[in-house]
Each structure stands twice: as structure tokens, then as C-alpha cells.
Amino acid sequence: MSVLKGYRVLDCSIAMAGPFAAQRLGDLGADVIKVEPVAGEWQRFRAAGGATGNRINVSFLSLNRNKRSLAVDLKAAEGKQVLMELVKTADVFIQNYRPGVAKRLGVDYETLSKINPRLIYVSISGYGETGPYVDRPGQDLLLQGMSGAMLSAGRAGEPPTPAGQYLADAVTAYTAFEGTLAALLHRERTGEGQLVQVNMLDAIVAIQMQELSVFTVGKKPQVRSAEPHAHSYIRAPYGVFATADGYIVMAFANLKKLGELIGEPSFADMVDEEKDSWTYRDEIFARTRERLVARKSQEWIELFLKNDIWAGPVYGYEDVVKDPQIAHNGTFVEYDHPTEGHVKMPGFPIKFSKTPSSISRGAPQTGEHTSAILQEAGFAPEKISSLISAGVVKQD
């Protein structure tokens, strides 16, 4: 039995943060019902990275496994009533509408909690439900820029480099996932449902606990160096270095030992490593960079690891997929999708000894499970047929 088997989640979210959080709940065994318009969520039709699919594009496929699809027109009175019937049977309701939209649709926490007082209502926003930025678009790159994180790495005077992932979205998804589990635990103890609010700005700021505390408590300014140092609050050498055939990363090296290994005698003169590695940060980085181009990446990595210097490779996705530790961990899962064929994608980051995660279904077609879901909610077959004929709901 999966750990969340028996819990029902209504996923009324779109794009990434909400669907990703709901997918994690589905991976743990929850019955996740994706509530989407009869035409389908817009993410179905926007190819990520140019990757499309047969009937489901890769972006939607990656964020909506272990869900059933209910396609319903919530702007129609009958459609809204369909949702209200489902709310009675739900444990969790997730939405990431822009602030105020849920209220206008009549699916806000105050309304739904009267129907089901045990409901965990998860509301995800860009900047918060109120405040001066409430109407701003909550898009990943915009939140990365506002978070301060970009100016902790790279060269002074050069444009900051965003993360290579949808970082704000992903962190927000996991924050919502965490909040949902905590609220469910509270309900198990007390019987009470509650409102859980998560916003992208707070989520991406919170993961910088150390960096921002160094600034607010330690009073250390956030100053980038002239060299492309990987973090403004970590001593040199720390970053990415070119080699004869690629790149490696290095962190927290003992300067004396590093100097001996790369043939840089000046490092031996830095007797107070903690102080000198800050004072001469640019010089240390530049001299390390100049020396490392002499050998290939694997040669340096083997030499450094043998001498307790922390170093490692810089992978591309092809390397990640082929890595032996990745294979050993079972990091990726593979399954056959009815329309998209054999697919391989990241799997389950949490291992449970007694309640393992699994894939019971791939991402659904729009409204694929509408009839079954409505039957479970108590709708008579003739009523379901009537709703389908009227276009209030869709059955794929």
C-alpha cells in the first residue's frame, strides 16, 4: 500500500508549481484528480524546449503522471456544481489562480470549507495573496531575479546568470507539497482542515537561509568578485574551471595542498588560509584557472579526490542519464504510455521501506476519467450523459 492511498486531491492548478506538487502527492499514492477545462489545460499545448508529443507534449507529460483527468466547464453553473460535489469527497484542493480569481469563481477557501470543513486548501501564488505585488505575474525567471540569488555568483560587472532549472517553480512545488503533508498530519490529530498558503517569493527567499543570514546577522555585504566565483559568501577557490577537455568544479580546497598538486607555488605563502582565501580571492581563482587547463578533467578529478581535494565533473544531461550512481539509485523511472510510447523521466526522490512510490498511470488525456470520477461522486449515468451532451464536461 502506498503511503497516501485513500486520500483524494483535486488539482485545479496550471503550469508547473501546482501540478508538480500534486504529482508528488500522486506518486505517494493519493488519488489526484486533475480538474481542467473541457479544452484541456493550456500547458498541454505549449512545448517545453521545443519538445512535442503525439497527443500529450513532454512538459505536460512530465508534471501530470499518477493523475486522472476530469474535464469540466467551471464557468457553467452545472460545471461548478459538479466540482462542489467532488469537494465533498476530497481531502486536498490545490489551486494557483491569480489572487482574487478563486473568489470570483466561487472556489475560494471560505466557500469550499463550508462544504467540507476537513478540507486542506492549498493556495499557491507568485508574491502572496495581498500586498503591493499582488497583480504581478508570478513567473520563474522574474522571481529568480527578485530573490537576490543571481547576484551571489558570477563576475562583478557582468549580467547575472539564472539557474539552469525552473528553480522558483520547483522550490515552490516542494514547499506546497511539504505544507500539504503537514496540514494532513494536523488533520489526522485534530480533525480540522485548514488553508495553506504558499508563494514563490517567500519560497525562493527561504532556501537562501544561510546566505541571507550572513547578510542580515553577520552584516557581510553581497559582493561578487572579478573572477567568475560560484558564490559571493564562500572563499576561493570555489567554482567551475576549464580543463584540457571540458570543465570541473572545485570546492573548499586546502590551498597549500592544491598548490602542490597543480604546480602553483604562490599558494604556499598564504599562511592564514581563512583570511587569505578571502583577501586574494580573485588571484587564487585566476591562478587555479591558468593551471587546470594543462590536464584533462578525469585526470584532475582522480588526482584531487586521491588527495582529499573536493572536485567533480560538470555533467550534461547525457552524462547524468548514463551515470552509474544514477543507475544504482534508480533515479529515473520508465514506463509505457498509451499514446506517447515508452518514456523515461525522473522518478521518486523519497524512498519508503514499506510504502514505496509507483506509477499507476501516465499523464491523462483531457477528460479521460470524467465519467468514472462522476460515477464515484454519485452522479447517475443518465446525468453524466446529459452533462457530456451539453458540453459541461468532456469524456475523452
TrEMBL record:
Could you tell me the superkingdom of the organism this chain comes from?
A: Bacteria
Q: Name one Pfam family in it.
A: CoA_transf_3
Alphabetized GO MF terms: transferase activity
Q: Does the keyword Transferase apply?
A: yes
Alphabetically sorted, this entry's keywords are: Transferase
Protein name (record): CaiB/BaiF CoA transferase family protein
UniProt source species = Steroidobacter flavus
